[in-house]
Structures are given as structure tokens and as C-alpha cells.
Task: structure prediction
Amino acid sequence: MSKPRIIIAGIGPGSADDITPAVLGAVREADVVVGYKYYFRFIEPYMEPDAVCVDSGMRQERERARQAFELAEGGRTVVVISSGDAGIYGMAPLIYEMNVERGGNVEITAYPGISAFQKAASILGAPVGHDFCVISLSDLMTPWEIIERRITAAATADFVTAVYNPRSHGRYWQLHRLKEIFIECGRPADTPVGLVRQAGRPEQTAEIVTLGDFNPEDADMFTVVIIGNSQSYVRDGRFITPRGYYRDADADTGRVGQDIMIRSFRTIEGELKNRDISLGRKWALLHAIHTTADFDMENILYTDEGAVETLYDMVKTGRLTTIISDVTMVTSGIRKGALARLGVEAKCYLGDERACAMAENEGITRTQAGIRLAVEEHPDALFVFGNAPTALIELCDLMRKGKARPAGIIAAPVGFVHVRESKYMVKTFSDVPKIIVRGRKGGSNIAATLTNAILCFNDAEALRPGRDV
Result:
């Protein structure tokens, strides 16, 4: 005589299209279907007319399981259903455990179903394209202390995280705490967060927000929340977490450097003391810290309000076509791919024979002479200084005389003589967009990277630097 049998079936999130053929076949063969009554409506059209539905009510899982065993032992063909996948916060673990408790006399077969987080992910785009975890905030059977440790581990390890049972009438604060933990653990405020309610059902709604803007009050027990990792981004309304295929494919073209740069920027952003700053300032700051590994840049990098945004818009619209630097090392550090892509020319007059002659004849530095020549030919250029305070002072003097009308200024000369003073001088020109590295610090590398930040500002929102690396 064959052993009694129970089939455990995950019926998916609620759409008929998401029920697997194996589960449909089991439901059609069932004498009895055991489950929570809310889910019967999804499978009743596929049941035999004389099949019976058995429900013991909300939070009566043990009673339903007991009834399923008694019915199976009485010779009935029993299917125990759960929404989603029965093995994920469903009836499968309980059925297996109870079978052991009862002596293991019933044969158990489990058919997987599409889990709610999988359905929600497909609605949002591809948010779980890399390592992920699923956490339930229900503390009915798991102490909150353990749940919080799991949340912290997920946030620290940079997992994409799907959240089940986010809120209920009596459980109103846990999702607020989860958001707080993710931010405390360094997950950036612009990390995508997807909320899908009633996934796969007629009442379905979906939205994508950022972690900073995410309001836990917008979720309920029918909502699945998915929080992206440090690589996740939103493009064309789709939430995407890359697996890394393009990184591998791009290794031969040199774009592996971009992947390293992206990860570096994510790390830097997570360590900033103050992330609540404008996008333009953050973009410039991330470039400066990435180049120097110096987090003092948070204190000394000054940006006029909207300076990065304004200068990028001028480049994009063709109003800014020339960049002048004080030394050739700055020009060398500006990405050639970006210049070519945007139709911008970067020039330095330091080696110009006319500058050499002028410096010798007038007793000034060659960088001063180079700026004088540059102003004659390109008075409305973006002027970038990474070495010589005398060159920056010269530009300030020419501006006061009305001979120069720069589109913008990046002031990052480095040294000990007249360096601070030159930066004080340039800051007074309130009508010119400026980025200034205050104090003695600076350098050609910083000046160049700040220029690059302007040229690739359209990648700032997705935090994907290094397009032209």
C-alpha cells in the first residue's frame, strides 16, 4: 500500500499567468485543497467540481497542517497551498517538520512557485540582478533583536534586499528602523527603492523612489519593498542592478577602469560626513576625494551654488568651447574622450614662444604671461589653475580691468607663497561660477579632475563616473 501523500504548492503572487503548470496539475488532481481562504479565489477555477477547500483561519497554520495530515492519512489527495513559493515564508517548512513529529509516514512533494519578490522585481525592472537577500519584518516568531542583526548584515554586505511583511496595523515602526539602519551602514541616499503593492493582482501599484525619499508609511502588508545595492541605478524608469557582464566585456576596451571608479565613488559617498548636499557639489567633491584620497576635501572644497550645473549646461549647449589651464599637467589630466565628445578644446599657453618672450621682457612668470595671452584670444573660456597662484592673481587683475570675462574658474593652485591670497581674491567675483580648493592644498591633478567632473556631470545622478576613462 502506498504511503499517504501531501503536495505543497506555491501558487505565485496572485495572477493566473504566474501559476506553474505543475501546480495547476496538482490542483486539478486534488480531492482537498488546504490553505488560507484569501488564496482560494486564485485556484478555484482549476479545481474539480467536487474538490473541497479547507481553511482554519488567519494565523492558524499549525491547525491547517494538522488537518492536511489527517485528510491525507484518510486516503484523500491533499494539496496545501501558499502564496508565492511555499518554501519562502510559506507552509512547506511546517509540513516537513510536522511530518517528522508524526513519524514521517506521509510522502511530501513540493512544487515551487513564483515568489512575490520575484514578481515585484520583474515589475520594477531587474533589481535583483546580483547577490540579494530577503528579510521578513514580522516578529511573531522571530525576536526583533535577530531581525535587526540580519538587517545590519544585509546593509553592511551591500546586498540587494527584499523586505516582506514591512508594516501592519500593530507593526508600524520596524520599517522606519530598517531605513535608518541602511543609512547608518552607509547605503547612499540615492539608492533606488522599489515598492510594489499587490504584485500580479488587479490592484497592483508600483513606484521607484530613492532611499532618502522613501517613506515607510507608504508600505503595508501587501507591499514588497526592494532596496538596491551600491551598483543599482534607475534608467528610463527601470530599476537595474547590473550583474557585471558589461564589466567583463569592456575589459579589453579599457572600461574596466570605469567599474573600479564606480565602486570607489560608492565607497567615498558612504564615508562622507555630510551627504545632504547638492548634486553638483557632491559630484565635484567625489572627484576630488577620489583623486587625492583626502577627506579633508569636505572641509576645503568650495563650490558656488550651481557652479557645476551651470558650467556643464554651457558646455552642453555650445556656449563654452575652450578650457584654459595654467600648466600643461592640468591639460594632460583632462579626459580627451570627453573633450572630443563635447567639442571642447583644452589649451595651455605656458610653452608658447610669445609667453616666454613676454615673461623675459616684462619680468613676470611664464604662467602669468600665458594667462595674458589666453585672455587676449579666449576671454570667455573656463580658466583652470592647478599650480601657479601668480597666474590666478593675473586673471583676477585682468577681470577687474574688464579684459577677461571667464565662463567659470577652477582655482586649485598649490604651495606656500600667495596661494591662500589668490583664492581669497578670486572668491570676490560673485558673478562668475567658481570651484575653489581653499588653503594651501591643490594641484594639477585636482584641477583636472574637477574639470572632468563638469564635463561628465550628466553621469552624476546615476553615480556612474568614468565614462571617458
Remarks:
- The chain has a mean pLDDT of 93.
